[in-house]
Amino acid sequence: MTASDIESTLVGRPDLERPRRRPESGRGRRAAGRVAIHAALIVAGLAMVFPFLWMLLTSFKTLPQLLQDPLSLWPDPWTIDKYVDAWNAVPFGQAYLNSIYICVLAVVGTLITAAMAGYAFARIRFRGSRVLFIVFLATQMIPKQVTLIPFYLLMAEFGWVDSHLSLIVPAMLVNPFAVFLMRQFVLSLPKELEEAALVDGAGRWRTFWSIILPNLKPGLGALSIIVALDVWNSFLFPLVLLNSPDLFTVPLLLASFRGQFGSVDYGLVMAASALATIPMLVAFVIGQRRILNSMAASGLGGR
User: Fold this and answer.
1) 6-52 pLDDT tens trace
2) Largest pairwise CA distance in the chain
3) pLDDT band at 215, cuts 50/70/90?
4) What gap in Å lies between CA 231 and CA 279, rounded to an integer?
5) What are the Cα distances from residue 292, in Å, to 4, 112, 148, 232, 285?
6) Engineered SS bond to 165: which of 90, 118, 160, 240, CB 3.0-4.6 Å?
7) % of the chain surpassing 90 pLDDT
8) What 3-state DSSP class applies to 5?
9) Closest by alpha carbon to 226, among 97, 103, 96?
10) Cβ contacts of residue 211 below 8 Å, gap of 6+?
11) Residue 85 in contact with residue 268, Cβ under 8 Å?
12) Which residues contact 57 (CB under 8 A, 6 or more apart)?
């Protein structure tokens, strides 16, 4: 029997025919799954954005509207008087300057120390380096509230209570996540770069500043935004360490603002909250793509 005879025999018997797949149905199921996922993400995104949207809209409402119809969404009429009153009621300008320069110094210091420590843990092998890195990284699991009293006593010994140094210097020197992120970036760089520098006569210090640090720019950019967000939103330690109103940061000033006006005019409180939130929100929106790309490039998901 020839091959053509066998093929004709099989074609003529429906019980031996292979079932044909329907690619249209598979593509339809995948499309429906993507639509469901996107719908769920849109609903979750709206749920996360709604409180911020409510805060912004409430800040443009008048006091009579807040008292008569507190559940209304749209301001009627729109007014920016609450922003003017909130800015003039408390020294927001001084608080902004305090938060800005604390953020700048903390970010710059953290980038330098974290890059150096990350390079040391990634490339310099010494006795106990792995154990030291694990112990250092494990400190991130300790809640900050546990270290509050010892930290306050330490700052008192240095004479840094009621001083911005108590917020700047520790932020510059102790950041386990920053060191871990920089270590992952250094590990993602090829060793041939350092070997070529060593062959050319460069030492460890010259190799770090001339070869390693320029290649860490994506990670440093993402880390700067993360550290700035953390420092700007810090509340507990400034609350304990700072006593003078002219030293207050924006979150700390906002807390005292709520204590003065929170039970009287919620529109005023919402306007003050918007003033405190908008700068970091803009920074995060601008840098979110850099953060995601840096996390992917560092190999955090697979290393």
Assistant:
1) 455 545 555 545 555 555 566 777 888 888 898 899 999 888 888 88
2) 101
3) confident
4) 13
5) 59, 21, 32, 21, 12
6) 160
7) 15
8) helix
9) 103
10) 193, 194, 197, 202
11) yes
12) 73, 74, 75
Which secondary structure element, helix H or strand E, spans residue 60, and what is its range? none
Gap between the Cα atoms of 258 and 273, Å rounded: 9
* Token pair recorded at residue 24: 């249209």
Beta-carbon-side half-sphere exposure of residue 175 (alpha carbons within 13 Å): 33
DSSP-assigned letters across all residues of 36-54: HHHHHHHHHHHHHHHHHHH
- Spatial CA neighbour of 273 closest among 48, 76, 87, 91: 87
Contact status, residue 184 vs residue 177, Cβ threshold 8 Å = no
Overall size of the chain counted in residues: 303
**CA angle centred on 106, ends 181 and 243, rounded to 5°:** 135
Those residues whose C-beta lies under 8 Å from the C-beta of residue 53, and which sit 6 or more positions away, are: none
Predicted confidence band of residue 155 (pLDDT cuts 50, 70, 90): very high
Pull the structure tokens for residue 64: 């009579």
Whole-angstrom distance, CA of residue 86 vs CA of residue 91: 9
Angle in degrees, CA 31, 34, 40, rounded to 5: 140
- Give residue for tokens 């953060």: 291
